[in-house]
Amino acid sequence: MKRRNKIRIASFSAALFAVMLIWGISGSVKAAKYKMQINITQQRALLQMCEYLDSMETTLKKATYAGTPKMLDELSSQLSTQALGAKTSLSALSSGDTSLYNMYKFLSQVGEYTRSLNKKMSAGENISAEERKTLESLLSYAESLSVQFSYMSELMDAGYFSFEEIKDALNKTDENSEDMVSFMNSAADAEESLKDFPTLIYDGPYSDNILSKESVLLKQSGEISLAEAKKKAAQYLGTEERMIFEDSDTQGRIPTYNFHADNIRIAVTKNGGMLAYMLSDTSAGVEKMSASQAVQKAKEFLERVGFSDMVSTYFMTEDGICVTNFAYKTGGYVCYPDLIKVGVSLSDGLIVSMDARDYIMNHYNRELPAVGVSVQSASDAVAKNLKINKISNAVIPSSGGGEFFTYEFLCTDKSGQDVLVYIDVETGQEDDILILLYSDGGTLTK
Question: N- or C-end of the chain: fewer Cβ atoms within 10 A?
Fold first, then answer.
């Protein structure tokens, strides 16, 4: 072989080696990137699975309290959507592994079963005790799944294993790692809890209401000047005007003049000069007053800044701050859409936050409806497995941006769980069900 050809071959070989090396490195990088993308996708799937199961648990709980076709129809529709999302997440986690048959069966049938009960109620028939017992069984299955998958998520967050190991754990039983055994047992327990799931034969008070409509209150109010707004801001804060400094305005659905004073930010509506919100960055100190005292301080503050006829509904305390929800009351109706939140420091009783934007967006002079359904008839619409403890009147928002005038029934189930059931005073239909959650910090709903 000629020397020139040897050189060419050597050069070509070196070039080929370099190309192959680059290709190999590039392929490794792409593979690593692809693996990372898969890992992120599966992390998201596990998180979403936990969220869907938690939502299903709440919705099924409400379904056991439903007493009218309208409410059961809404809940069954929610369950179908939540179950579909859970099935999608489960598929991403297990690559569609058919050994998880019971889980897939449960997720497929849970929405359809509640829908079948709704059809029965719509036909004028009552749900039998046996059917309500089946609903309670479905709830038990959902609770079990929710607990097991939450535990899996906690183990994953702690970094005990990768999603490749998760995939193996969903299909194998010979892992030796203590943490992997815990994960595997959780998956097995979740699947085992559904082994007796029957083959069924078929025939979510009002905090953070969406600000999606035009404010009647603002339309009826005249526009004020910047100077007038500054004066009002000083009055709301109980300080002198010279201590108030201007910030940039806010436009949008609630146009405001914005100011700050020391560690407080405050917004005043351009129409009407109402206090829209205020926020202090002061940290709370040692708690020296009770929550009830803080609620009273908040109520007095609202009266001073121009919000009258407000009643406290729920409160929550955290990190030395008591935040109370107030709703407007008129004609015996507590109007939950007209919401104002006030935060009070439990160390000195100072107002550290206030948000009246829900009130500003939703408040108007309501014309009370003619009551077409008696209290007794509305009581009869409440599910028989609930004991009625108190009856009030309330206005609640609808998902479409409207409102319902309702009887508010505070009830208790056989386990002691408190539930709010809302029956429409005009139609007698169930407009909503809320589950009350109590903690050391206060009361919440879901």
Answer: N
**pTM score over 0.90:** no
3-class secondary-structure state, position 211 = coil
Tokens of 82: 């939540």
Closest CA to 366 of 392, 337, 339, 407: 337
| Residue 32: strand, helix, or coil | helix
Q: Which residues lie closer than 8 Å to 41 by C-beta, 6 or more apart?
A: 92
pLDDT by 10s per residue, the chain, length 446: 444 444 444 554 554 444 455 445 445 444 444 444 445 666 777 788 888 888 888 888 888 888 887 887 788 778 878 887 787 777 667 554 445 667 777 777 777 777 777 777 777 777 777 777 787 888 888 888 888 777 777 777 766 655 565 555 545 434 444 444 444 444 445 555 455 554 443 332 444 444 446 889 999 999 999 999 999 999 999 999 999 999 888 888 889 999 989 888 999 999 999 999 998 877 767 788 898 999 999 999 999 999 999 999 888 888 888 889 899 999 999 999 999 999 999 988 899 999 999 899 999 999 988 888 999 999 999 988 899 999 999 999 887 678 999 999 999 999 898 989 999 999 998 888 888 877 666 666 66
Structure tokens of 205?
Answer: 């008070």
CB of 305 within 8 A of CB of 360? no
- Name 246's bridge partners: 259
Burial (CB count <10 Å: 0-12, 13-18, 19+), residue 8? exposed
Conformational region of residue 69, where left means phi above 0, alpha means psi within -120 to 50, and beta covers everything else: alpha
Dihedral (Cα; 281, 283, 284, 285), 10-degree rounding: -150
Q: Which amino acid is at 387?
A: K
CB-based contact 280:264 (threshold 8 Å)? yes
Instruction: State the DSSP code for 169.
Output: H
Whole-number Å distance between alpha carbons of 326 and 303: 12
- Alpha-carbon distance of 107 to 112, in angstroms, equals 10
300: number of Cβ within 10 Å: 11
DSSP 8-state assignment for residue 251 = -
